[in-house]
Structures
1.
Amino acid sequence: MQQIELTVNGKRASFMAEPRLLLVHALRDYLGLTGTHVGCDTSSCGACTVLIDGVSAKSCTVFAVQAAGHDVTTIEGIGNADALHPMQDAFWEKHGLQCGYCTPGMIVSAVDLLQRNPNPSDAEIRAGLEGNVCRCTGYENIVKAVRTAAAALRENRPRRAVRDIEPLTPPVEEPPPSGEAIIPEQLQETKA
């Protein structure tokens, strides 16, 4: 066992762990920060992406001992319910997610991208997120979200709170064109 000390989301953390412990498991199992997801365990998907000293890294490829003495930022440290990071807000606004499993890593990678390039083209956004896999969205809305966040950051827009965002509401079901609703009993009568 080895003593590991690092800063996570601005707070000092210290724990005893085996030298072979991966950073992703230290964050989730030792520190309770479950926003960093384990997707593939092979560094292929990017769901475990965090910032180490401000640079994105796949935490399934980093031993916790390698992160000792460094600053680690997880999705929990990117923003909070009272002040969303513009990237989090843009992913909500532009529907840059579906199932949400890849979203924490995607947001963290996109934050790193905008730190390095505050006004990326769509091609640069796609290249910057190349190591993050999304199996649901087709990436179009993710690119829109990154573009929207980039504009918000350049314009220094105020951060919104979760409570200030309108909730998504399901669409109202319209009655059939005849104006009469079909009830299950009627459906069964037509089958007979």
Note: The two ends are 72 Å apart (CA to CA).
2.
Amino acid sequence: MSERDLFANFERMRREMDQLFGDVFARRRTGFLPAVDVAYALDPPRAIVTAELAGIDPAELEIEIEGRKLLLSGCRHSSGSESEVYQQVEIERGHFRRVIELGAEVRGQEAKAVYEDGMLRIELPLVREMDTHPPRPVRRPGVGGGDPVSFTKSGDS
């Protein structure tokens, strides 16, 4: 058997192992990703992000807003003692960091978060078009030294 065939067999075996066990090992290395819902409400205009974070101490949650990204991070600690022997382990534990892409600009400084019954609900007011493009004064054509007129993009109300 040539050296090339030997490495090809190892590579094939590694791929097959990844297919069989890759998901299990990947979770253990990287922590977990909490489930998240993102919704939008019209009155008042806001994004509503709900994250499933049962068993996580709210004091250890980090919430950051960077442009259109909401970053959630924290840790779910093990609740059992080292003397316990598990038959089944399904609850994911460890550190997590979740980046949620929002579909609109938000005013992060006005965000409100509530943690209740293992669910984190964050309400983020949306930036209105006028918040990003304030009216600017424009001189009326043909009138020298006239009063400024507010100008907004067409389609604004």
Note: Residues 71 and 99 are 5 Å apart (CA to CA).
